[in-house]
Amino acid sequence: MKRRTVIAVVVVAVLAVVGGALLLTRDSGPSVAQQDLVVPVGPEPDGEPVSIDATVFAPDLPGPLPAVLLAHGFGGSKADLTEQARTLAQRGYVVMTYSARGFGASGGRIHLNSPEYEVADAQALLDVLSARPDVVLDAPGDPRVGVAGGSYGGALALLLAGYDDRVDAVNPRITWHDLAESLFPQFAASGPPSTPAAFPPIDQPGVFKKLWAGVFFGSGSALGTPAGQQPTQCGRFAPDVCAAYDDSAASGLPTAEILALLRQSSPATVLDRITAPTLLVQGQADSLFPLSEGDANAAGIAATGTPVTTVWYAGGHDGGDPEAERIDELTYAWFDRYLAGDAAPSSPRFEVTGAPASLFGARTGAPPQVLVAPGLPGAGPTPQAPRTELPLTGPPQTVVAPAGGNPAQISSLPGLGELIGTLLRRSTTALPDIPGQSATFVTEPLTQPLTLVGSATVDLRIRTEAPDVTLFAKLLDVAPDGAGAVLPQRLVAPLRLAEGGEQQVTVVLPAVVREIPVGHRIAVVLSTTDQAYAMPADARTYEVSLAGPAAVSLPLVAVEPLPRDNTGLLLAVAALATVAVAWTAVAWLVRRRRLRESLDVDPELLGTPLVVRGLGKEYAGGFRAVSDVSFRVEQGQVLGLLGPNGAGKTTVLRMLMGLIHPTEGELRVYGHRVTPGAPVLSRLGAFVEGPGLLPFLSGRANLELYWRATGRPLAEAHLDTALEVAGLGDDVDRRVRTYSQGMRQRLAIAQAMLGLPNLLVLDEPTNGLDPPQIREMREVLRTYAETGRTVIVSSHLLAEVERTCTHVVVMNRGRVVAAGALDQLVTSEDLDAGATNLEDVFLTLIGAAE
Question: What is the pLDDT of residues 398-420, one digit of tens each?
Answer without folding.
Answer: 999 999 888 888 887 776 554 44
